[in-house]
Amino acid sequence: MTRKTTDRTGAGSATPGAKSAGPQAARGAGISRRTMLKGAAALAGVASGSGAVTGFPTIWAQNPITLRQFGTGVSNLNAIAEKCKADLGITLQMTALDSDAVSQRVVTQPNSFDIADIEYWICKKVFAAGTLQPMDVSKIKYYDQIVPIFTTGKLTPESTIAQGTAPNTVGFVEGPDSKTFASAPTQWMTLIPTIYNADTLGIRPDLVGRPIKNWKDILDPAFKGKTSILNIPSIGIMDAAMICESAGLIKYADKGNMTKKEIDFTIDFLIKTKKDGQFRAFWKTFDESVNLMASGEVVIQSMWSPAVAAVRSKGIPCVYQPLEEGYRAWGGGLGMAKHLKGAQLDAAYEYINWYLSGWVGAYLNRQGYYSAVLSTAEKNMTPDEWAFWMLGKPAKADILSPEGKVMYTAGAIRDGGSFQERMGAVACWNSVMDEDRYMVRRWNEFIAA
C-alpha cells in the first residue's frame, strides 16, 4: 500500500468552488450562495483563528454537510475526521477498504461516495469510467506548493522520472469533462495529492542475524519460511520485480509495464520460490503485516513505514531497511465524485484546502509518510520533529507518534535518512501495466499455487 507529495499557495479564491458552482449551488443545504458568502465574510475574523483555511467553520456547522469518503486504511483515519469536524463543521463518514475493493467501488458504486481517497495507480485504472470529476486547480489554495513529484514527476529539476505509474502521468486531464490524461500540467487535476512514501523491506534486526543491503536478501535460505510479500497484485508484482532484478535474474525494460514474457518469468519464479517454502505468508492489510513481524513469524518482508513504527511501538526491534537498489514508491490523493455540486462541491473544495493546510500533513509526517504540501506541515511540527522526519537529523528528544507513543528515542535517526535521500532514491512507482489483466490472473495463480 502504499503509498506522495503536493501543494500550492495563493491560487484559489476565498470561496472554494465559487467560480463554477452557479447561483443554485447551495440550495440543497437550505442556504443561498449569497447568504453563504455574506456569512463567510462576517465570520472571517473568527475563522482565522479556528484552523479553517477559508472561513467556513460556523457556516458548515449551522448548515450541516456530510461527505462520504472511502479509501485504504493508510489515510482514512478517525483523527482526521474528528479534526475536520472541529475545524470546519463538516462531517466525514470514512470507510477503509483494501486497494482492490477501492478500485471496484469507484467504478461500480459511483453514488456511494463523495470523496475517493485513492492511489495514483488506482486512478489510472478507474478515471476513464467517468465517475470522478476533474478538479479546478485555481480553487486549490496551496496548489503552487505541492511537491513537484506530482506536477512535473521530478523531485528536483535534475531528477529522472522513475519507472512505473509516476503520479504526474495520471495527475492531469485536458478539461473539466475530459477522461484522457494530459501529458503536462493543466488547470484540471484528477486527484489532489495528499500522501506518499518510499517503500522498502521491513526487518527484525534482532532475528535476521546479519546486515540486509539488497532486495534479493529476502531470498536467503537462512530466512526460509520466515519471509513475506504483500498480496496486492499491482504492488506485489513491483516488489517481486525489485527482488528479481536485485538477484540478477532478469533486467526489465520497465518494471512498471512488463511484457507478458516478463510477467511469466516473474510469476514462475515466485511460484517456484513459494513451493520451495521461502514464504511464510502473503499479507493484504496493515494489521496483518504488523502481526507477522511482531510475532517473529516473519523476519523480513514487504512493509509500510507506519507498520514498522507500529511494531516498534510495542517495544519490538523493527527497521525499515534502506536498500542499494532504491525504493518502490507510491502516492495518493483525494478525488471528487462526479455527482458533487452546489454546497457539497463547495464543502469538498473547502475540505481539500483544509487537508493541505498543515494539521493533516504534520499528522501524516509523524506516521512516517510524507505530506503533499511540506511548507504547511512544517508549521505544525516542532523543529525537532521536522529535523528528524524530513532532514534525517538525530532526534534531540523522544519522537512521538500522533497518539503520543514513543516511536524513536532521543538520538535515533530515521531509517533511510532525509526526505531528499529517500524520495531521491525511488526506483519505481506502484503501477498499472498495459497487461494488467494478464498480470492479475497470473498473480492469482501464484497465490493459489
Task: Identify the notable features of this structure and list them briefly.
three-stranded antiparallel beta sheet; twelve-stranded mixed beta sheet; D-Maltodextrin-Binding Protein, domain 2; globular; 17 strands; alpha/beta; disordered N terminus
Q: What would CATH call the architecture of the largest domain?
A: 3-Layer(aba) Sandwich
* Quaternary structure of the protein: single chain
Structural class by sheet pairing and helices: alpha/beta
Question: Quick one: CATH superfamily of the largest domain?
Answer: Periplasmic binding protein-like II
Roughly how many Å is the radius of gyration? 22 Å
Which CATH top level class of the largest domain fits? Alpha Beta
The biggest beta sheet is recorded as: 12 strands, mixed
Q: What is the approximate shape?
A: globular
Q: Portion of residues in helices?
A: 25-40%
Low-pLDDT residue spans:
1-53
Ends: how far apart? 23 Å
List the total number of helices.
Answer: 17
Strand content: 15-25%
By CATH, the topology of the largest domain is D-Maltodextrin-Binding Protein, domain 2
What's the rounded overall pLDDT mean?
A: 87
How many distinct folded domains? 2
Q: How many runs of DSSP E, i.e. beta strands?
A: 17
